[in-house]
């Protein structure tokens, strides 16, 4: 399997409208994925579903020791299942044989990092020519009780194990910027991100934050991935054809994060 595709939560369910999925964007991205002919690992973020539910419940981690914690756990997971249903509909309508693998059932954290993951269901699907679909979720955390795992951490954990060579991240902006381009007209896009150019992002701050760290959190996952041989491309989910071109090998659009040797 050559590619992993992350459907950014803010691209498929912008955080300014709670619990609304951009079915048009999902459908177009699914069609581009289908047209590419590539079997991919698909991961999606939380957008207005996961992050709104996490904010509403005022609790994104903690011991499962009372009704408030249990309600937060089940409601955040349920919100993610609802967004996942919209993604699955888009993929299936495009003719992609996709099956959801809910991280809550296969993934364990310790202090917010993945320490155990039952990969067998994912490998079974990959070997059968299918498309496994994972998503940011609430999962067990051995130290804290439960906590949120981001789609980016899941992707970074699984990609090297599945022999993936390129991760394509479909974002709501066309790459990684020095500062948030939605609020800062002086923001500059970084075309090739390396440990050296990362300093520009740190100096200027990162894009809008969310419960799993926004653009900064994403880069913290992608650079280690580059060190173990997986390149990444952050592209604009709203530019028609960009995903298909990225799955055809192009590095011309967005921000390219080459393998660090
Ligand atoms: O959008 C977060 O996933 P992400 C998932 O990939 C939840 O960071 C439940 C907020």
Percentage of helical residues? 40-55%
What is the CATH topology assignment?
Answer: Carbamate kinase
Q: What is the CATH architecture term?
A: 3-Layer(aba) Sandwich
Largest sheet: 7 strands, mixed
Strand content: 15-25%
Overview of this structure, please?
The chain has 261 residues and is of the alpha/beta class. Helices cover 40% and strands 22% of the residues. The protein is built from 10 helices and 14 strands. It has a 7-stranded mixed β-sheet with strand order 4-7-2-1-10-13-14, sandwiched between helices. Helix 2 packs across helix 4 and helix 7 runs parallel beside helix 9. The radius of gyration is 17 Å and the shape is globular. The two termini are 22 Å apart. The protein binds Isopentenyl phosphate. The site of Isopentenyl phosphate has 17 residues, from helix 3, helix 4, strand 8 and helix 7.
Topology record:
Blueprint: E1 3-7, H1 9-12, H2 23-36, E2 40-44, H3 47-56, E3 61-62, H4 67-93, E4 98-100, H5 103-106, E5 107-110, E6 113-117, H6 120-127, E7 131-135, E8 137-141, E9 145-149, H7 151-161, E10 166-171, E11 176-177, E12 189-190, H8 198-204, H9 214-227, E13 231-236, H10 242-247, E14 255-257
Parallel strand pairs: 1-2, 1-10, 2-7, 4-7, 5-8, 10-13
Antiparallel strand pairs: 3-9, 5-6, 8-9, 11-12, 13-14
Helix pairs in contact: 2-4, 3-4, 7-9
This protein binds Isopentenyl phosphate.
């Amino acid at each position: 399997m050559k590619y992993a595709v992350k459907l950014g939560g803010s691209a498929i369910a912008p955080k300014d409208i709670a619990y609304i999925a951009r079915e048009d964007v999902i459908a177009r991205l699914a069609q581009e994925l289908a047209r590419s002919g590539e079997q991919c690992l698909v991961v999606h973020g939380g957008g207005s579903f996961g992050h709104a539910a996490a904010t509403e419940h005022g609790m994104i981690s903690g011991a499962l020791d009372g009704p408030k914690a249990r309600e937060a756990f089940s409601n955040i997971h349920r919100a993610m299942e609802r967004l996942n249903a919209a993604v699955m509909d888009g993929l299936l309508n495009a003719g992609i044989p996709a099956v959801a693998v809910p991280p809550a059932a296969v993934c364990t954290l310790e202090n917010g990092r993945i320490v155990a993951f039952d990969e067998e269901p994912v490998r079974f699907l990959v070997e059968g020519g299918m498309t496994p679909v994972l998503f940011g979720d609430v999962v067990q955390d051995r130290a804290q009780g439960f906590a949120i795992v981001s789609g980016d951490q899941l992707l970074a954990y699984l990609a090297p194990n599945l022999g993936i060579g390129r991760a394509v991240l479909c974002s709501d902006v066309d790459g990684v910027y020095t500062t948030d381009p939605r609020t800062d007209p002086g923001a500059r896009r970084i075309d090739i991100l390396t440990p050296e150019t990362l300093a520009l992002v740190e100096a200027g701050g990162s894009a809008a934050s969310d419960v799993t760290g926004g653009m900064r959190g994403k880069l913290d996952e992608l650079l280690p991935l580059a060190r173990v041989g997986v390149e990444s491309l952050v592209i604009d989910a709203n530019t028609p054809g960009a995903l298909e071109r990225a799955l055809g090998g192009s590095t011309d659009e967005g921000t390219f994060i080459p393998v660090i040797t």
